[in-house]
Design a protein that fits this description.
- The protein is mainly alpha-helical and 71 residues long.
- Helices cover 52% and strands 0% of the residues.
- It has helices at 20-33, 38-53, 61-67.
- The longest helix has 16 residues, at 38-53.
- It is flat.
Amino acid sequence: MTTISFEENINLSKNHFKTLEDFQLYIVEKLQQSSLSSAHKKVLDERLAEAEQNPSNFITLDELKSSIKRK
């Protein structure tokens, strides 16, 4: 058995996982349940307002994906 330790207190309510994937899914779910800080919310609100005021000044995710060229 491998032990993983964290110096930071991450407040896990569950500490036994069958696989690493189970642990990753648990962390993702935990992060999705957490709320944004006021500073983070402010940044997102500013970006949303900018996109609404200047709709021609950005590209969609699909446009971005199609513009990426793999080597």
